[in-house]
Amino acid sequence: MIPRISSGARIAGATVLVAAAAAILYGCAGAPANDDSASLEARTIAMMKESFKAHGQAGLDRLDQDDTQRVCSRYSTTPPPAAVAKKIEAENLAKVRYPADGKLMGDWKKGEKIAQQGRGMQFSDDPSKPAGANCYACHQLAPQELSYGTMGPSLYKFGKTRGYTEENRRYVWAKVYDAEAFSACTNMPRFGERHILTDEQIRDVVALLMDPNSPVNH
Amino acid sequence: MPRKLRSIPGAAAALALGALAVTLSLIPAPAAAEQSVEKAIEQYRQDLQGGNPAELWEARGEDIWNTPRGPKHVSFKSCDLGLGPGVVKGAYAELPRYFPDAGRVLDLESRLVWCMVNQQGFTHAEATKITFGKGAHKRSDLEALAAYVVAQSDGVKMNVSLADPHVRDMYAVGEKMFFYRAGTHDFACATCHGSDGKRIRLQDLPNLTKKADAQKAYTTWPAYRVSQGEVRTFQWRLHDCLRQQRFPDLIYGSDASIALTTYLAARANGAAYAGPGMKR
Predict the structure, then answer these.
(1) Shortest Cα distance, chain B CAs vs residue A67, angstroms
(2) Mind telling me how many Å the CA of A33 is from chain B's nearest CA?
(3) What is the CATH class of B54-279?
(4) Tell me, what's the ipTM?
(5) By the 8 A CB rule, do B240 and B131 touch?
């Protein structure tokens, strides 16, 4: 059986820091809990830690949150207040790294494959194979691909309409590297910051959006 | 087979399943695939004249339910799903609930495991050896049992009571988990199920923060998954979404799985249960 741990033990097991931070930031959100929200958050985390098992590349540390994730968990359906958003964006902008050799553009053909590939980072995926980005899960890109999702805006003709400038190439690099640097609590993953894509792969994806020859711009 | 299938003769259904599996695996490009899968499922429904292959699982589940099993040679007729030992009718519509004998809030699947362990004498490892089946050689008793039990709540209004503080607590934790962002991709359930009218590739995403969507989603699981040729349970649904969420492996029947189920089941309250469903 799954070992039973009393609520008391669960609270004790979680860090005091988490509880304290949550106490400051949470109001009572109308959840039918009979106790305060700080202990609810602590209990949730403790319960998750005993309810998952490590599998393949997905260890239990996947359940640990960084600051951005912790704060953004409170703003899934409503945008964060301006001051909170500003802080998250600044923190993430500071994490963006540009490639040492300054080369921002790779091969759009490889970028298209990366944008198509949905595998990567799941416990069922082979960690020795490079991860995909599955941009098409959320965005329209090249017009030939009809199977695209709508969680993000259409990126069709992105380079053509925005302009093939160095500034825009740097923006796309940074956006793919760490999307939270530009729109706090976005649903878009931080592909560079979270080590999903390599620099080489990000380069190819930038080319998919910014190369005049890419089908995205036709 | 003790119980007559509602509409499809077993052999014909099995043949149809094989044919569809082949059709699905041969479909080429993603876009074309999604569209022809929709078409294939529609055709399939027509061929079955409103039937659902899940009925084969229901029949097997009923068999298992009534057969004495395990070291203690006890059947599920002594298993109490909340309405009394052996009572199946309407039981699923009130789960999860707090079970004093277990000292835990349990969903249907964890309650079945509890009965296997505490009444039939299996070890927990034996009871949960095959939670999700794979083809004829790896069939899951739990999927069959779940199909049988849920079918006896068809048309019954979902009525998960939050009167018990244990259940209320699980609901609150489940809600918190639903919005908990973590992992390599920063995903929470709410990332994919928190806004209206969105889709991933061509798959529509229900907005589970809205009552109507939560009701429609919850009341149609467990479901026969045409693409897998298996009945899948709600535990499977959570397990597989969490895999896509890049979380580690959700333990079958764990507290977190029951918390999420409690949250979603209670939000479906008031809607008539309509499973097992049929999904792509």
Answers:
(1) 10
(2) 6
(3) mainly alpha
(4) 0.89
(5) no
